[in-house]
Amino acid sequence: MNTFTYSYPTKVYFGEGAAAKDLPAVLAKVGKNVMLAYGGGSIKKNGVYDELMSILKNVGKNVTEFSGIMSNPTYAKVQEGAKIAKENDIDMILAVGGGSVIDCCKVISAQAKISEDLWDFETQQHGSPSEFIPMGAVVTAFGTGAEMNNGAVITHEGKMIKGALWGAFYSFAILDPAYTMTMPMKQVISGSFDALSHCMETYMGSPRETNLSDEINEACQRNIIANLRKTIKNPTDISARSELIWAAAMAENGILKIGKVTDFQAHMLEHQLGAYTDCNHGQGLAVIHPVLYRHMLPEAQAQFARLAVNVWEISSDGKNEKQLAEEFINALSDFIIEVGQPTKFSEMGIAADTDFKAIADSTVLTGGCCKKFTKDELLEVLNECV
């Protein structure tokens, strides 16, 4: 295991009724002006909006609403939110939703405190923001674990880049599984696969020999697989939802990454696919992972073989490492079909004449990947996904 320093700033309030129980005391400690940020308005249909507005009003907050944060949030939306935050002298941002809302607000919190363009400041000047508007997250859609880190995936439409910006950590996160019960099943499946992907992407990084972080990771993968199956079978199983929402948080709270250099090549490739197609993130990952992993098999054989046995419970009797590695990829592919995720871009409505070369050429090559891909090899992967 590599050397590391670990600490975590986000306090988690987990369980049914967590907002009503814990949020009033938390809000009492912040300033008077609160931005309530959310997406397309589903929280107004499921009662979450009314509950949170009641809590905010009862503790005497002035509420400024910022709505309409889209899936794959754009940099233009970030700038819109930052402008509103400045104009209303916002003391705290309360982000309510899934990964898109939560990511967007991380960057708003930073952009509102500096005069420079944050994208250029981070990517061109290689600066790091040091002042932020404090934030809290209320998770209503699980999978990304975005509430547990300070990275944000934002689409810069002008530059045709979907990439990472760095903002603030959330001071606290409300994880109430009851808030996720109205998630469409398509989103439950997509989010759960994203969480599984986070685990796998972390697992595939170095060091590649067995270590404690990877053993915890294997447990998270088993948990996601088992509880997604339970949730599909019984969408009202709140116990299974509780496991999934916490597994998604565990995948991104840094614990699985302790002493590791992560991989995340599949994510980088899917991000750029999203920049050009605005596709569903979890679905894109489901298509890309098996194809990418077949290209990685010679380099990642030992880790794939461990996953076959320790996560997918494939018997090792009479099998060599290469056979087990192949069976892992097959098991992952079969699971993708089992849960109804797409296996080809065409099933997602992505046309065969999409500019895959431009996508591959603009994809970040990650240093922690088992295989050192070239842009041409990533183009081969994309073409095989069609």
Please write out the topology.
Layout: E1 11-14, H1 18-27, E2 33-37, H2 42-45, H3 48-58, E3 62-66, H4 75-87, E4 92-97, H5 99-111, H6 118-123, E5 135-139, E6 151-156, E7 161-166, E8 172-175, H7 185-203, H8 212-233, H9 238-252, H10 265-277, H11 281-310, H12 321-338, H13 356-361, H14 375-385
Parallel strand pairs: 1-8, 2-3, 2-4, 4-5, 5-8
Antiparallel strand pairs: 6-7
Succession of helices and strands: EHEHHEHEHHEEEEHHHHHHHH
Distance linking N and C termini: 38 Å
Estimate nothing, just give the exact number of structural domains: 2
Rg from alpha-carbon coordinates: 21 Å
Nearest-integer average pLDDT: 97
CATH superfamily of the largest domain: Dehydroquinate synthase-like - alpha domain
**Which range does the strand content fall in?**
5-15%
What is the share of helical residues? 40-55%
- Going by helix content, strand content and strand pairing, the class is alpha/beta
The main β sheet shows up as: 6 strands, parallel
Number of strands: 8
Choose one word for the global shape: globular
CATH fold name of the largest domain: Dehydroquinate synthase-like, alpha domain
Number of helices: 14
Query: What are the low-pLDDT stretches, counting only 5+ consecutive residues below 50?
Result: none
CATH C-level of the largest domain: Mainly Alpha
* CATH architecture heading of the largest domain: Up-down Bundle
Q: Strands of the biggest beta sheet: in what spatial order?
A: 1-8-5-4-2-3
